[in-house]
Amino acid sequence: QVQLVESGGGSVQAGGSLRLSCAASGYTYSNVQMGWFRQAPGKEREGVAGIDSVGNTVYADSVKGRFAISKDNAKNTLYLQMNSLKAEDTAMYYCAAIFPSRTTLWWLGGNWMKPENYNYWGQGTQVTVSS
């Protein structure tokens, strides 16, 4: 059973930085696609960034150049480095996984950012950015 536990959320002023972590277990790191999602009150859950087993990374346009997704396979941990934070980044952030992974072409073709494609989720960590 895949388990995902996020941490690192908090409150920060606009322009600041945070690094989210997602401790993962129960999967084979060579056969998983992972993503960070966020959901603000009254809004749909949206894909923020994704990374596959060979290190391909994808980002939503709204965070390109500001956020960076990475993973440490030895520690079974996924990260999201968030810089130049804006008030509109305020949301609950979730770590998610597709396990076993789908084809790279399918995932990179836009399916990485669709929440319904992920079969494992963490409980979320709150990020609040004040302007």
Which helices and strands occur, and which strands form pairs?
Elements: E1 3-7, E2 10-13, E3 18-25, E4 33-39, E5 46-51, E6 57-59, E7 67-72, E8 77-82, E9 91-98, H1 104-108, E10 120-121, E11 125-130
Parallel strand pairs: 2-11
Antiparallel strand pairs: 1-3, 3-8, 4-5, 4-9, 5-6, 7-8, 9-10, 9-11
Summarize the structure in words.
By secondary structure, the chain is mainly β.
Structural class, by secondary structure, is mainly beta
Largest sheet: 7 strands, mixed
Radius of gyration from CA coordinates: 14 Å
The number of E-state strands comes to 11
What's the order of the H and E elements? EEEEEEEEEHEE
- Roughly how many Å apart are the termini? 40 Å
Mean pLDDT: 96
Task: Determine the fraction of residues in helical runs and give it as a percent range.
Answer: under 10%
The count of helical stretches stands at 1
Low-confidence stretches: none
Shape: globular
Fraction in beta strands: over 45%
